[in-house]
Amino acid sequence: MRQLVQLFAAVFIVAFGLMYATSLLNSSEGYSGGNTLTIYNWGDYIDPDLLAEFEEESGIKVIYQTFDSNEAMMTKIEQGGTTFDISVPSEYAISKMKEENLLLPIDHSKLPNLKHIDDRFMNLSFDPGNAYSVPYFWGTVGIVYNPDLLEGKTPTSWNDLWDPSLRNNILLVDGAREVIGFGLNSLRYSLNDTNEDHLQKAKRKLDALTPNVKAIVGDEIKMLLANEEAAVGVVWSGDASEIMTENEKLDYVVPEEGSNLWFDNMVIPKTARNIEGAYAFMNFMLDPENAARNAEYVGYSTPNKEALALLPEDISGDTRFYPSPELTEKLEVYDNLGKKMLAHYNELFLEFKMHRK
């Protein structure tokens, strides 16, 4: 028993020593728990120079972590193992996080730069009055294609993906809402459809697409398409912009049946510790100059009207990424389908992926 007590004591002393050493190291760098900001964002979704400048201006140390899906992000925040001061979920996830009491309300008085956001991107259905979120980026889901590999063909419809000439030549993003969504859109159904008959028809149609699908992938889809590993890819518009920068042969189109109009907004999770730091960072990113730099670096569309005016004309005037109101009226924002229906979408998507094997 004495040896066991001694062992526990030794473990405690070592653990305490490590905690003390970490604290001492942070203090030596000028940081402590009170001036550290933990941000949880998508991968490749911010200009790292802006993070460095924020640290220098504010004296706040940024701890930056990334996620690859809204579902993974929500699960981690729900579990509470890591405290995040800011996260950047998509619209339907924001709605769900509000329902589950995972977010703090936003005090607009602490965000003077919020005035620069275009009114079109405020007060949307997933967060009336922007009570819990602040716009970050927006965009569409569409088709990147390589005209050279398509022998001059130009896709205009989701149904073009089923062309037999595209056998083993399509890459898809690894997202249930995106893939099930374009399956529904191809049948002229809403991408928020919950009708079981419609969902099963979309699933069967997607199963028929599998001979054309080369792979379902994550962030590597950008490199693969830029390197001409496939003729066609279903991607988010910001990824399309980055891919086209790497390979100027490629082009991007939003199919005529319609598609997703998505929004990613900054939020403050309920367990946040550095709330004042969170406001300081959000206001920093809402500054038009910073928002313009971020949009140019990331390639996604900025909701900041003053930032848009600072962007080069070849970016701000590109209707593929800043589409006309006539096109955006045909697009749909993802609704919060509820936990049960979202799980069903994920199940259908998993069945589709298994069908390919």
UniProtKB/TrEMBL annotation:
Q: What keywords does the record list, in alphabetical order? A: Periplasm, Signal, Transport
The record's subcellular locations are: Periplasm
For the keyword Signal, the answer is: yes
Q: Which Pfam families does the entry mention?
A: SBP_bac_8
Which CDD domains does this one have?
PBP2_PotD_PotF_like_2
Q: InterPro entries per the record? A: SBP, Sperm_putr-bd
UniProt protein name: PotD/PotF family extracellular solute-binding protein
